[in-house]
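Lecture notes, unit on protein representations.

Consider one protein chain, 206 amino acids long.
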Amino acid sequence: MKNSLVTIVAGVIFGITVLISGCAGTGAGAAAATAKGVAPEYVIGPGDTLQIFVWHNPEVSVTVPVRPDGRISIPLVQDLVAADKTPTQLAHEIEKRLARYIRNPMVTVIVTGYVGTFSNQIRVVGQAAKPQALPYRQGMTLLDVMIAVGGLTQYAAGNRAVVVRRVGSKEIKIPVKLDSLLDGGDIKANIPMRPGDILIIPESWF
């Protein structure tokens, strides 16, 4: 079966709670950091869920989603841009806004449900069991992606799948053999993924 290997490793937990600090990252920066073996900085994107904790001020400590426009609203702070910032950068911005009302506010931002910016996602389309956009994480491989999307449908032409990857100003297509990876356990088919990759899985012709 196409999902035989996926079934064995389906216990792997893909979703994790992320608490990250540091400077801002971009899709290009994440790719460069990955190439150097350094963990890329997480950048908040629309659809993420943020837990905002204000020390000694529970009345303004909330959990909020990042709206499609990339903004959030919390008590005392409305329509603050959260997208394209790291959690630490956003925490500092919230502290500046809250300083008008609270003396020396201390803010922590924790990403509890995350999607990431488009440039830091891996998008899976076509004949996957659960096509979706996945947040990139360091060391992510093609097999990790297939586990996250639940494997292939019965109609998938897995060995005709391609990964579309932007390299500089060009897009390249990398053929991948998902049937060989999932059914045959061909580890050589398990390529490393990069932020911004798009995995396209076509339908079988018969």
